[in-house]
Amino acid sequence: MDNSFFKELIERRHQMLTSDYKSAQIASTSIELDQTRVGRLSRMDAMQVQQMEQALIRRRQKEIIELEDALERIQNGDFGLCQQCDEPINPKRLEIDPTAILCIRCAQANESRTG
Predict the structure, then answer these.
(1) Is 0.90 surpassed by the pTM of this model?
(2) Digit-coded pLDDT (tens) for 57-74
(3) Contact between residue 57 and residue 22 where contact means Cβ atoms under 8 Å apart
(4) How many helices (H) and strands (E) does the chain have?
């Protein structure tokens, strides 16, 4: 397996997410709660938008950590190996999700146990 391809893919995604993460943090500024300046419905709408932005920030932060973990696995020589059965993860699966840590078989088995 060509880890240089995956390293470049992961680094590009990491850079994009980091940039988006910083932009989202700036966009999720505090809400104006002065009732004389903003109507009740506008405040509620603004609060809902802020909550959605904060959820997006948390999701991006989680993805950034997963990408960093994948880069560490590349350095350690563990990238592309299922963390449960030690079998290789299909490269097509890694192209779609380079942060995958389980092969399809183990992922399905885990899902059937929890689902």
Answers:
(1) no
(2) 899 899 999 999 999 999
(3) no
(4) 4, 0
